[in-house]
Amino acid sequence: MSFFSGTARIGHSSKLPAGATREHGIAMLRDHEFFIRCDPHLNKLEVVKTDTPPGIPDAIKSQACGETHSYLVTDRVHTLPAGIWDSNIASTWETTDITNGIFVRIKGPMSIVMDTIWEIRAGEDGALELAEEVTITCSRLLLGIVKSECEGGWDKIHAKMIARVEESIKNPSK
What we know:
By secondary structure, the protein is α+β, with helices and mostly antiparallel strands. The chain has a single domain (about 5-170), classed as START domain (Alpha-D-Glucose-1,6-Bisphosphate, Chain A, domain 4). Helices cover about 25% and strands about 40% of the residues. The chain has five helices and seven strands. Helix 1 crosses helix 5. This is DUF7053 domain-containing protein. It holds the Pfam family DUF7053.
Protein backbone atom coordinates (compact mmCIF):
# COMPACT_ATOMS: atom_id res chain seq x y z
CA MET A 1 0.00 0.00 0.00
CA SER A 2 1.34 3.40 -0.86
CA PHE A 3 1.55 6.47 1.33
CA PHE A 4 -1.46 7.93 -0.49
CA SER A 5 -3.69 4.88 0.02
CA GLY A 6 -5.82 4.18 3.02
CA THR A 7 -7.95 1.36 4.36
CA ALA A 8 -11.18 1.40 6.34
CA ARG A 9 -13.18 -1.47 7.78
CA ILE A 10 -16.92 -1.48 8.38
CA GLY A 11 -19.20 -4.17 9.74
CA HIS A 12 -22.98 -4.47 10.08
CA SER A 13 -25.31 -7.26 11.06
CA SER A 14 -29.07 -7.90 11.21
CA LYS A 15 -30.94 -10.77 12.83
CA LEU A 16 -32.65 -13.24 10.55
CA PRO A 17 -36.39 -13.65 11.14
CA ALA A 18 -37.79 -16.41 13.34
CA GLY A 19 -37.98 -19.68 11.44
CA ALA A 20 -35.08 -18.82 9.14
CA THR A 21 -32.35 -21.38 8.70
CA ARG A 22 -28.75 -20.89 7.67
CA GLU A 23 -29.74 -22.39 4.31
CA HIS A 24 -32.46 -19.73 3.77
CA GLY A 25 -29.92 -16.96 4.30
CA ILE A 26 -27.15 -18.51 2.24
CA ALA A 27 -29.53 -19.20 -0.67
CA MET A 28 -30.57 -15.53 -0.65
CA LEU A 29 -26.95 -14.34 -0.71
CA ARG A 30 -26.02 -16.74 -3.50
CA ASP A 31 -28.70 -15.36 -5.78
CA HIS A 32 -26.09 -12.93 -7.11
CA GLU A 33 -28.39 -10.87 -9.31
CA PHE A 34 -30.87 -10.37 -6.46
CA PHE A 35 -27.96 -9.54 -4.18
CA ILE A 36 -26.63 -6.88 -6.57
CA ARG A 37 -30.12 -5.46 -7.10
CA CYS A 38 -30.20 -4.64 -3.36
CA ASP A 39 -27.68 -1.88 -4.19
CA PRO A 40 -29.68 1.33 -3.64
CA HIS A 41 -27.69 3.17 -6.32
CA LEU A 42 -28.03 0.48 -9.02
CA ASN A 43 -28.73 1.84 -12.47
CA LYS A 44 -27.60 -1.07 -14.69
CA LEU A 45 -26.36 -4.64 -14.25
CA GLU A 46 -24.58 -6.76 -16.88
CA VAL A 47 -23.01 -10.21 -16.64
CA VAL A 48 -19.46 -10.03 -18.04
CA LYS A 49 -16.74 -12.50 -18.94
CA THR A 50 -13.23 -11.61 -17.86
CA ASP A 51 -9.86 -12.88 -19.02
CA THR A 52 -8.18 -12.04 -15.74
CA PRO A 53 -8.43 -14.38 -12.77
CA PRO A 54 -10.57 -13.12 -9.91
CA GLY A 55 -8.89 -11.39 -7.00
CA ILE A 56 -9.73 -13.70 -4.13
CA PRO A 57 -7.65 -13.17 -0.98
CA ASP A 58 -5.76 -16.25 0.23
CA ALA A 59 -7.80 -16.33 3.45
CA ILE A 60 -10.99 -16.71 1.38
CA LYS A 61 -9.74 -19.22 -1.24
CA SER A 62 -10.11 -22.18 1.13
CA GLN A 63 -13.79 -21.27 1.66
CA ALA A 64 -14.66 -20.90 -2.05
CA CYS A 65 -17.52 -23.17 -3.17
CA GLY A 66 -17.60 -22.51 -6.89
CA GLU A 67 -16.57 -20.23 -9.68
CA THR A 68 -16.39 -16.48 -9.44
CA HIS A 69 -19.03 -14.59 -11.43
CA SER A 70 -18.31 -11.10 -12.75
CA TYR A 71 -20.74 -8.25 -13.31
CA LEU A 72 -20.45 -4.75 -14.66
CA VAL A 73 -22.53 -2.60 -12.32
CA THR A 74 -23.41 1.01 -13.06
CA ASP A 75 -24.45 3.07 -10.06
CA ARG A 76 -26.00 6.51 -10.04
CA VAL A 77 -24.31 8.49 -7.28
CA HIS A 78 -25.26 12.09 -6.56
CA THR A 79 -23.28 12.85 -3.42
CA LEU A 80 -19.72 12.97 -4.72
CA PRO A 81 -18.06 16.37 -5.09
CA ALA A 82 -18.54 17.92 -8.50
CA GLY A 83 -15.79 17.18 -10.96
CA ILE A 84 -14.46 13.95 -9.44
CA TRP A 85 -16.89 11.57 -11.16
CA ASP A 86 -19.86 11.66 -13.45
CA SER A 87 -23.10 10.69 -11.79
CA ASN A 88 -22.95 7.23 -13.42
CA ILE A 89 -20.12 5.13 -12.01
CA ALA A 90 -19.27 1.72 -13.49
CA SER A 91 -17.51 -0.89 -11.39
CA THR A 92 -16.74 -4.58 -11.67
CA TRP A 93 -18.25 -6.87 -9.06
CA GLU A 94 -16.69 -10.31 -8.62
CA THR A 95 -18.90 -12.63 -6.55
CA THR A 96 -17.69 -15.94 -5.16
CA ASP A 97 -19.79 -18.33 -3.11
CA ILE A 98 -18.08 -19.26 0.15
CA THR A 99 -18.96 -21.71 2.89
CA ASN A 100 -21.34 -19.46 4.86
CA GLY A 101 -22.30 -16.90 2.20
CA ILE A 102 -20.46 -14.94 -0.48
CA PHE A 103 -17.31 -12.93 -0.99
CA VAL A 104 -17.65 -9.83 -3.17
CA ARG A 105 -14.80 -7.76 -4.58
CA ILE A 106 -15.86 -4.45 -6.10
CA LYS A 107 -13.30 -2.71 -8.31
CA GLY A 108 -14.26 0.86 -9.06
CA PRO A 109 -12.79 3.91 -10.74
CA MET A 110 -9.82 5.69 -9.22
CA SER A 111 -8.42 2.42 -7.79
CA ILE A 112 -11.22 1.92 -5.28
CA VAL A 113 -11.43 -1.69 -4.11
CA MET A 114 -14.00 -2.98 -1.64
CA ASP A 115 -13.77 -6.54 -0.35
CA THR A 116 -16.85 -7.74 1.48
CA ILE A 117 -17.65 -11.00 3.19
CA TRP A 118 -21.40 -11.51 3.49
CA GLU A 119 -22.28 -14.46 5.66
CA ILE A 120 -24.90 -16.08 7.80
CA ARG A 121 -23.55 -16.68 11.29
CA ALA A 122 -24.63 -17.11 14.88
CA GLY A 123 -24.89 -13.79 16.69
CA GLU A 124 -23.91 -13.11 20.27
CA ASP A 125 -27.27 -14.43 21.50
CA GLY A 126 -27.00 -17.56 19.34
CA ALA A 127 -29.65 -16.42 16.84
CA LEU A 128 -28.70 -16.42 13.16
CA GLU A 129 -27.76 -13.10 11.60
CA LEU A 130 -26.85 -11.62 8.25
CA ALA A 131 -23.40 -10.07 8.60
CA GLU A 132 -21.24 -8.00 6.29
CA GLU A 133 -17.58 -7.17 6.84
CA VAL A 134 -16.26 -4.57 4.38
CA THR A 135 -12.65 -3.59 3.76
CA ILE A 136 -12.26 -0.46 1.64
CA THR A 137 -8.92 0.39 0.02
CA CYS A 138 -8.48 3.59 -1.95
CA SER A 139 -6.87 7.01 -1.99
CA ARG A 140 -6.89 8.67 1.42
CA LEU A 141 -8.58 11.63 -0.26
CA LEU A 142 -11.56 9.46 -1.22
CA LEU A 143 -11.69 7.15 1.79
CA GLY A 144 -14.13 9.26 3.81
CA ILE A 145 -16.48 9.65 0.85
CA VAL A 146 -16.47 5.93 0.02
CA LYS A 147 -16.90 4.95 3.67
CA SER A 148 -19.81 7.38 4.01
CA GLU A 149 -21.50 5.85 0.96
CA CYS A 150 -21.11 2.38 2.51
CA GLU A 151 -22.46 3.53 5.87
CA GLY A 152 -25.46 5.31 4.37
CA GLY A 153 -28.36 3.00 3.74
CA TRP A 154 -26.91 -0.34 4.88
CA ASP A 155 -30.04 -0.90 6.95
CA LYS A 156 -32.21 -0.61 3.82
CA ILE A 157 -30.02 -3.14 2.01
CA HIS A 158 -30.29 -5.55 4.93
CA ALA A 159 -34.07 -4.98 5.08
CA LYS A 160 -34.45 -6.05 1.42
CA MET A 161 -32.39 -9.15 2.09
CA ILE A 162 -34.30 -10.02 5.27
CA ALA A 163 -37.60 -9.56 3.39
CA ARG A 164 -36.36 -12.06 0.78
CA VAL A 165 -35.56 -14.57 3.55
CA GLU A 166 -39.01 -14.01 5.09
CA GLU A 167 -40.58 -14.66 1.68
CA SER A 168 -38.62 -17.92 1.31
CA ILE A 169 -39.90 -19.05 4.73
CA LYS A 170 -43.53 -18.30 3.77
CA ASN A 171 -43.22 -19.76 0.24
CA PRO A 172 -40.58 -22.51 0.34
CA SER A 173 -41.19 -23.49 -3.31
CA LYS A 174 -39.76 -20.19 -4.62
